[in-house]
Amino acid sequence: ENLNSINIRHHPAHDSRKWQNRERIQEHFPNIKEDRNRSFYHSLEKCKIFVTDHLGTSFLEAMQANIPTIVFINKTSYLFRNAFEPYLKDLETMKIIFFDAKSAAIHVNEIYDKPNDWWFSDAVQRTRARFVDKYASTSRDWMNIWIKELRETALKNT
Questions:
Q1: What are the CA-CA distances from residue 15 to residues 7, 23, 25, 31 (Å)?
Q2: How far is Cα of residue 77 from the mean position of the Cα atoms in its chain?
Q3: For residues 89 and 72, what is the distance between their CA atoms, to the nearest angstrom?
């Protein structure tokens, strides 16, 4: 529905012709625009909605940056630790993560005009904050936090 406003960004490592992603997408969607900005962060800042098909660094960074984010994955392609399951369930409940592209596309179309109404709702923000605190936390004091964690881990293992 909103194809005219989509910018696709290919992973830099996928510039080779091995998978021919660019060609295959171009064949099916000849008018789709490609984001060739060198800075992912600059592009992310301009995103109305960030949509991705994997739980990688870009997903974590979008969540940390508090950009409306949707991820669709094939659940059977991932092995999740038991400790991650509550987070996964919360992300699914809040419609951040989907296990099929069609459901994700329906959600994007539903929220497209006002994504911030969904994203900045108290429930979604609580879920996002809880997830980010556990899996995408950032701090200016990161080095001291790591040193403390490493010392505590070393003491537990002695």
A1: 17, 11, 14, 20
A2: 16
A3: 14
Helices 122-135 and 57-64 pack at an angle, to 10 degrees, of 130
Q: Which residue has the tokens 């003491």?
A: 155
Which residues are CB-neighbours of 137 under 8 A, at least 6 positions away?
64
- pLDDT tens digits for range 104-137: 999 999 999 999 999 999 999 999 999 999 999 8
Q: Let me know: does 77 contact 61? Beta carbons within 8 Å.
A: no
Coil, helix or strand at residue 131: helix
Tell me how far apart the alpha carbons of residues 105 and 68 are, in angstroms, rounded to a whole number.
14
For residue 137 the two structure tokens come to: 């936390």
Look up tokens 């994700």; give the residue: 104
pTM for the whole thing?
A: 0.79
